[in-house]
Amino acid sequence: MQSAATAKATERRKGFFGEYGGSFVPPELQPRLDELAKALDEAMADPGFKKELERLQAEYIGRPSALTECCNISNKYGGGRLFLKREDLNHTGAHKINNTVGQALLAKRMGKTELIAETGAGMHGTATATVAALMGMHCTVYMGAVDVKRQAPNVSRMKALGADVVAVEAGQKTLKEAVDAALEAYIQRPDTFYLLGSAVGPHPFPGMVRYFQSVIGIEAREQFLQREGRLPDYVVACVGGGSNAIGLFSGFLDDESVHITGVEPAGRGIETGEHAATLVAGAPGIIHGFRSYVLTDDDGEPAPVYSISAGLDYPGVGPEHAHLKDIGRAEYVSVTDTEAVEAFSELCRMEGIIPALESSHAVAHALKILPQMSADQTVLVNLSGRGDKDLDSVLPLLGLA
Ligand SMILES: Cc1ncc(COP(=O)(O)O)c(C=O)c1O
């Protein structure tokens, strides 16, 4: 039996990954997060919730997503063999739908009728608008005005699905400002459910998003074992807030033989300061109500960040990744815009797959390590989304527009 003091300490540690995570929010928000945490615990313990989630994963999202070997690239680059976990084939074209289906089910269970969300690349906004339509809820999506322009196809999709898209004009007009605006709206309007799109934010969001995204790692591990009779040597995923990465990594954390790598955006180069490589170049701090690595300016405020990829330019990162970095269980590297665009083109031309610019960062890292691997070694990359949304930005860079 725990003493009262120990029980309190345990409670305080809830939502922490090592020294990261937690809940650092205005007092008026804490009761709503407590209510959410309680509802999540109850839902996870309810077989009916799990059954409905599994039904929607199969019938609506189209899971399991495929595992694809990229033989042409493996032959060209020499060394090891490349495999992709095809989250781009999910309904709405990215891993984001895994999380929105789960959270919307929870919102419905809690009796909420309106979803609010932030979005960078627009994939999470689209996935939220989609589940809002499915479950008969109203949906408002906050998106930086810069992202509204560079991810126009997704703005059209959200509108067609019936969502209100609010262009946020503050600051850099990208993902951080969209999160600020969505959080503000959530605080102002107690009747809403904040459907957070990545493994960030105060407790219980990081653990909840990991739970709904863990289907990626569970499937990938099973599929790989079934196909190859062994585990991959390397697993690789891009890291913005870190949800697709933690979804994949969670399936392999206990497998010591598997080398785990998260890939952050180096933008125009780490040395230029124009990047969003939070774990590679940041330091511990607090952002948006949780403790993690943060990129800060001279005043200690979240720094302006940059990446060609709208889904990766966030000055914070999920707290579990911060912990995995500190304990050395995962390594975090960075890839520049130019390398990501080259990888984008390689996957299009060599394999007939158009990847999201976010996912192209992970592919770029795999292309770097493939030639150094031996012929019996394998690398599994999470292809977190499809790249139709990025064609307008990428084609001019490839001299094709
Ligand atoms: C296709 C795709 N991949 C990756 C990300 C990055 O998010 P996360 O790090 O939470 O997976 C995004 C974000 O919008 C995305 O749209």
| Overall 3D shape | globular
Helix share, percent:
40-55%
For the record, the CATH class of the largest domain is Alpha Beta
In spatial order, strands of the major sheet run 3-4-14-9-10-13
Give the rounded overall mean pLDDT: 96
Domain module count: 2
- Low-confidence runs (pLDDT<50, min 5 residues)? 6-12
- CATH second-level architecture of the largest domain: 3-Layer(aba) Sandwich
Q: Give me the number of helical elements.
A: 16
Estimate what percentage of residues fall within beta strands: 15-25%
Structural class: alpha/beta
**Radius of gyration over all CA atoms, rounded:** 20 Å
Biggest sheet, open or closed, and with what strands and sense? 6 strands, mixed
CATH topology of the largest domain: Rossmann fold
What compounds are bound to the protein? Answer: pyridoxal-5'-phosphate
Layout of helices and strands:
Layout: H1 4-13, E1 16-17, E2 20-21, H2 30-44, H3 47-61, E3 67-69, H4 71-77, E4 81-86, H5 96-109, E5 114-119, H6 123-135, E6 138-144, H7 145-150, H8 152-160, E7 164-168, H9 175-188, E8 192-194, H10 205-228, E9 234-238, H11 243-249, E10 259-267, H12 278-281, E11 283-287, E12 290-294, H13 319-326, E13 330-336, H14 337-351, H15 357-369, E14 378-383, H16 391-397
Parallel strand pairs: 4-14, 5-6, 5-8, 6-7, 9-10, 9-14, 10-13
Antiparallel strand pairs: 1-2, 3-4, 11-12
The structure holds pyridoxal-5'-phosphate.
Pyridoxal-5'-phosphate binds next to helix 6, helix 11 and helix 15.
